[in-house]
Specification:
By secondary structure, the protein is of the alpha/beta class. The protein contains 19 helices and 14 strands.
Length: about 450
């Protein structure tokens, strides 16, 4: 989302104005008092309302905006909120589609709920579209954060500089290594195991990166540089000193690992292609291993398998860094925000309360949305209604813990572009690691100074 300085100033000014005149809880929704709400949460049974009890007594339509949160159509809405809507028949959730959030702000049409992944939370904070949920929701309804994935809670709380809670997590994403068994069988190479180090995976990739009968097979795609670096718990900015750290020792080690992967003969094709991805893994079937998100696999597999273009594949626990054993791909999760200017805050809170309850989480988890609850026994039931992972090593995926998220900053979107350019210069132009990282860091610092000067 690219908004110029004038537009940003307009948006900030408008948010201040609308927030000042909005009154918390001024919705016309008919809701229970605090004692009734406390009774319906079920205490330790998961904050969920009793089945069939219409909490919101007057019809209300909640506008939902999805900011890179994979809620793209009405089917996705039903997949996430099906149990919520069944328990609250007077609530309708309307997905706002085909419009930029900046346009909604300019038109004073603020959504009631915003779904956002943790990596994009700053986008919403910078636009003033998140309210502190501590008093009106967390404390009022006794929300127990100990029920959630611990690393998700840590990452979420990192956005609140003074203890604010700007969102409630509702679904978790998980890193996995997906691999093509047919390729390994063709070259008589052992399959990858759960939680192998990146060095071991690179050695394995070299054995299956070959040309066979005129067909080129690629051993490994380690995924996007942003996720790869964050899995190593590397931020782009030193928050204390307010400067870029793209030329740190951590990034040098990271780029050294990447160099070994891309130096395998055949990984970079004659046209300098070196990034392949999950679609290339499924459609072309020439990529042996790919570091992928479980959500990406889950969403793409059904239509692929329905096409009849199947092959033999499986999963392994995500690769780890040798100095961080047992810790895999970065933590990623989706949260729901309730903007201060929402006209139906209390109804939105009822949605959140039911969504994080045991029943809704169990139903959602058996579909396409992995539970955010810290319940290993529930996670192995992920997508069980779809049979996508029947006979696959799904349990092995959850043996590897997600990496703690390094601190995000408002500069990350651009800084990761500079890091991607550095990666390309190293792979395609064969520039040395120190040079490409120094250049990236200089560009990042220059950009940050420009942003600070415009505030």
């Amino acid at each position: 989302m690219d908004i110029n300085g004038a537009t940003k100033r307009f948006i900030r000014g408008w948010i201040v104005a609308i927030t000042a005149i909005s009154v918390a809880g001024c919705s016309s929704d008919s809701l229970p008092n605090k004692e009734e709400a406390k009774a319906e949460t079920g205490g330790s049974n998961g904050q969920e309302a009793r089945a069939g009890e219409p909490i919101v007594k007057e019809p209300v339509t909640l506008k939902l905006y999805s900011h890179y949160a994979a809620i793209n159509n009405d089917q996705d809405v039903q997949s996430v909120f099906g149990t919520v809507l069944a328990k609250h028949p007077n609530i309708t959730i309307e997905l706002v589609k085909g419009v930029n959030i900046a346009d909604l702000i300019a038109a004073k049409e603020i959504p009631d709920l915003i779904a956002v992944p943790n990596g994009s939370m700053y986008d919403m904070l910078n636009l003033g579209l998140a309210s502190d949920l501590n008093d009106d929701f967390v404390k009022k309804y006794g929300v127990d954060f100990n029920r959630f994935e611990p690393e998700a809670v840590k990452a979420l709380r990192s956005y609140g500089k003074k203890g604010e809670v700007y969102g409630i997590p509702y679904t978790l994403n998980y890193g996995a290594l997906i691999y093509n068994k047919d390729i390994f069988d063709t070259f008589a190479v052992p399959y990858p195991k759960d939680g192998m180090t990146w060095e071991e995976i690179t050695d394995l990739a070299a054995k299956v990166t070959r040309v066979d009968s005129g067909t080129s097979f690629i051993g490994l795609d380690p995924g996007a540089i942003k996720s790869f670096s964050r899995s190593y718990m590397l931020p782009t900015v030193n928050q204390t000193e307010d400067r870029a750290v793209l030329d740190s020792e951590g990034y040098k080690r990271l780029f050294s690992l990447l160099k070994d992967m891309y130096d395998i003969p055949g990984v970079v094709d004659p046209k300098n292609k070196y990034s392949y991805g999950i679609d290339w893994f499924l459609k072309e079937q020439k990529l042996a291993m790919h570091s992928a998100w479980l959500a990406a696999i889950t969403s793409r597999l059904p239509p692929f398998e329905q096409s009849g273009n199947t092959f033999s594949w499986d999963l392994a626990g995500h690769p780890v860094f040798s100095d961080r054993p047992g810790i895999g791909k970065e933590i990623e999760f989706q949260s729901l925000l309730v903007p201060a200017a929402s006209k139906h805050k209390e109804a939105a809170y009822r949605v959140l309360l039911t969504l994080i309850g045991d029943e809704a989480q169990s139903v959602m988890n058996k579909g396409n949305n992995l539970t955010i609850l810290n319940k290993p026994e529930l996670r192995v039931e992920f997508a069980s209604n779809t049979n996508i992972y029947k006979g696959k090593n799904l349990e092995g995926v959850f043996k590897i813990k997600p990496a703690p998220a390094p601190m995000y900053s408002e500069y990350d979107a651009e800084n990761y572009k500079y890091l991607g350019d550095a990666q390309k210069s190293m792979i395609v132009d064969k520039e040395d690691i120190n040079t490409v990282l120094r250049t990236a860091n200089e560009r990042a610092n220059k950009y940050m100074e420009t942003v600070k000067s415009q505030k």
